[in-house]
Amino acid sequence: MQKLAMKSGKWLPEFVLLYLNYNVFDMNATIETNPLLDRLPKHLKQFIKPQDYSDYTPINQAVWRYVMRKNVDYLSKVAHKSYLDGLKKTGIEVDNIPSMYGMNRILTDIGWAAVAVDGFIPPNAFMEFQAYNVLVIASDIRQLEHIEYTPAPDIIHEGAGHAPIIANPEYAEYLRRFGEIGCKAISSDKDYQMYEAIRLLSIVKEAEDTPQATIDAAEKAVEDLQNNMGELSEMAQIRNLHWWTVEYGLIGTVENPKIYGAGLLSSIGESAYCMTDKVKKIPYDLSAANQNFDITKLQPQLYVTPSFSHLSLVLEEFANKMALRTGGLSGIEKLIESNALGTIELSTGLQVSGVFTKVISHEGKPIYIQTTGKTALASREKELVGHGKLTHAEGFGSPIGKLKGINLAIEDMSPKDLTAYNITEGNTVKLEFEGDITVEGEIITGSRNLQGEIILIRMNNCTVTHGETILFQPEWGVYDMAVGKKLVSAFSGPADVNSFDLITHLPSSTTIKAKHSAERDDLESLYHTIRSIRETKDLETSLAPVLSKLKAAHANDWLLSIEIAELLIDRNEPQLLEEVLIYLENLKQRRPEVAHLISGGLDLILTKENV
Question: What confidence tier does 29 reach under pLDDT thresholds 50, 70, 90?
Answer without folding.
Answer: very low
